[in-house]
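Technical note accompanying the year-one report. For the benefit of new consortium partners, we illustrate the data format agreed upon in the data management plan: each record pairs a sequence with a structure-token string. No post-processing was applied to the example shown here.
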Amino acid sequence: MAFNLATFKTRTLSAIVFGCIMVGALVWNQWSFLLLFTVIHFGCWFEYNRLVESIHEKFVQVPAFIRITTMLVGFGGMLWLLDPQTYPLSFLPISLQQLGGWFIALALPFLVIGGWVIRKKLSANAILFLLGGLLYISLSWSLMLALRGRALEGFNPSIGWILPVVLIVSIWINDTMAYLAGTIFGKTPLSKVSPKKTWEGTVTGVVLSVLIVGYGGNFWFGLPFKPLIFVAALSSIIGTVGDLFESKLKRMAGVKDSGQMMPGHGGFLDRFDSLLVATPFVWIFVYLFL
């Protein structure tokens, strides 16, 4: 794949602007973190619905209230998995976690009853796509929110954003290095799903992500080395699978990008495809082994 300077400049500039917004929202406080992933959650759902409409023609018949209610069930799950100590609501008699439970309790019956009323418009595949969206999008961002505030041995518990940031930075480094290496000396295609990706770029991206995050985080910030390299490796490898999965969805839908949220990078799903799939695996690793 030939190196395109204009494309690289566009991608780099938009990535810097977007990165500044992301980093600011990630580290400012827990509320900016929650707001950030609330916006990302609904943005991903909007694009996912559009992709599925192109993949499965009968999905167009699914009424808007069914789609919106499904999104709200997913958002309720995000709130339900929040740590009440990390997200206190002193001015309300209930916690955000309890509020999320009420979201689910109220939206689910409405979804079931509404689905039964318009059942003739709901094909089995349409229902599976809606359930798939809950797993693919809502569950992933729920677990991302659950990672914030997770205290680990060797990590400063007051820096609640450290694990999400390590996860996100690992994927960013992997994507950038894989793109550069692939465009400069990549020759062997990684997959037919995404022919521009190469094995040379993919391996280089993973290796450099692990080295930069592991040694850089340990040297500059004093973070424990072993958790860093495991999280970086898992994020990079599984993140690449997430990238290929979203590429498969786009190919099935017959589109180049899922949206136009970010110049040179596409939409929400294009930007967070790796993170969507990597987050649950990092969450499992953290809770089982760290």
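Partners are asked to follow this layout when depositing records. The chain has one domain: 5-289.
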